[in-house]
Amino acid sequence: MLDAVMRALAAVLLVFCPFYVHLASAPEAFPPCLGVLALLGVAAWLNRHHRTHAAALLVCASLYGLVTATTLASGGVQSPAYGAYAVGIIVAGLVLGGRAAIGFTLLSVTTGAAMVLLSRSRLRDLPLDFASPGSDAAAAWASSNAYLVVAALLLFLADRATRDTLSRLREARRALRESDERYAMAVRGSNDGLWDWDLDNDAIYVSPRWLEMLGLSPRTGDVTPSTWLGRICPDDLPAFREAFDAHLADETVQFESEHRLRHADGGWRWVLVRGLAVRDEAGVPRRIAGSLADISPRKMAEQALAHAARHDALTSLPNRALFLEELQEAVAQARQRGMATYALLFIDLDRFKAINDSLGHQVGDGLLTAFAGRLRGCIGGSDTAARLGGDEFAVIVRGVPERARIDAVAERIRTRLAERFVVHGREVRVTCSIGVAFGSVDYSDADAVVRDADIAMYRAKSLGKDRCEPFEFELREEVLRRRELEEDLRASLENGGLDVVYQPTVEATTGALGSFEALVRWNHPTRGPLSPSEFMDVAEETGLVVELDRFVLRRAVAEACAWRAERRSAAAIGLSVNVSKSQFQRADFAEFVVATLRRTGLPAHCLDLEFGEAVLMSDCTYTRANLALLREAGVRLALDDFGTGYSSLGALHRARVDVLKIDRSFVHAMERDVAADLMVRTIVSAARGMDLRVVAEGVESLAQSRALARLGCHQLQGRLFSDVLSADQVSRLVADWPRFLLRDGIRAA
Question: For residue 232, what are the β-bridge partners?
Fold first, then answer.
């Protein structure tokens, strides 16, 4: 604006210069004109070099000089030309501002005063008529100056107001620009698409980013409300319309919807659409505008989390929570229809714990994963297979639960599972026990169905494993009793509710004490004393036998050390502890035994570890390693109940056991059964030939004692010599043993 005003003023001055020369009609008129032209030339040069303010000052100075010269040439302050100073004041105010207008006014007033003084003193002989009759130059000057001052003040005030307004406008424009920039940056940063829906004209604008998010381009044509709605997934459209209409009806503060939109590639994209309606004075919505964000990654993460919460991480089968939901639906459906529409198969892998312990958890996990894959292939499309935890699986078979059909499914699963697995390069064979609970309208919840199928599965295990058994109501009491027994046994192990008793072995030829066998006893809090046969099966099935064995070993070794410290005569007496097959399949068993001996101070050669023939037949790597480490440590190995299994004397030699214990069944039968007597003679003869010590169990008569001694048995054990004893009784027995033996009329054979 300044540049335009300045150019216009310069043009006026150039036009006015010839007029001034004509008005003056004297040679003195040329110097002022030349001065004005010179100033205008300098101003033009300054303006070309972008020094606009300095150029404006020179143009205003040119105007001042030309007005002054014209005033002097036309009669001084009484001349109409003097009023041209007002034009100069206005121009200065417009071009340079209010302060310049005030300065121009002061300069004009001063110039006028100088003209008055000059006219009175007649200092120069000018062609001016300052003293014409009736003229009053001073009065004219004062009158003209009043107008000039008023004009200057008005211009100053107007300039201040204008500058304030312009300043506010500039500030508002700057704030608006910054706001626009922030909004643009926010939009770019959020990576959202924008949309604006004109409700009156049913037209919609979408941003380029909106199109890009759906794989569209501007060349695809304008987006209309109908084309947008047509891209919404039909399953999501009702919810979208409901939220949209609710906001237009002013029922919600903001419109918001999560739904799927069809992408140009044919797939679906999850989007979050937000919007806000613009309403008129009557509250009627005229427009609604907002944003569209791609939330597909978030939705995928949510779906993955939801899947993980309801599926087993190892096998990807439904987990217990999802399985129980589906089973509960089947139970409710059966009650609603008044007829059974499902059956439940409860599947447990046989001896999986031994596989896990012997081959490692990596192989165990691989076996579970492979089994899950086979299980999927054995069921129908409407059925559900799930992993309940550990090695427990379940299958919901939907449809009328006909016995033949369910048996066929169970047999298919059992047969398929029995086929060999190759896991991490290892060949693994495993079987399973299956319990079946047939759906009934009598069931009201899923847990009851699972409980009965579980009971049937335990029945299958108790009958030899690798079989399928249906649930029968009379089984419930038996299995529940076993479950309670398991829980009570676990609690007794934790709370010290078990005890250890001892039975001595006697040297067959001298009658001296040889060792004490440690035996576990359980005085049940409600059932009273229980024999090992009543709870050892439960301990084996549940894996509690491992902790049970270690409890007995720790207690027996500690008490044996106490006897040895108390009685010098007990120093030569040994200790025997029974150990299960599962214990040998633990990688840390030998280390545990050695650590226990080291902690208590019992010499390794004083400890015999007794185990069954199944340990010798095992091909478990950990079993072989534990046997070797225990022999190396000096612990003696004893084979218990020899003759009842499948091991041979050759196996004894290869296993390098130290002690052979003849099962009590042969001892009891040898007096009346020639075959049993021959078996005992053969075992004793072969064992002595391999330099094994032989112990006969279950000796109850003096005749048995003498016969076994004559055959060459090294030690005898049974109620003939002593029943089981507590630790305190053992201590007294050690002190009183020879007299005890003679008092009961028993002499060495």
Answer: 261
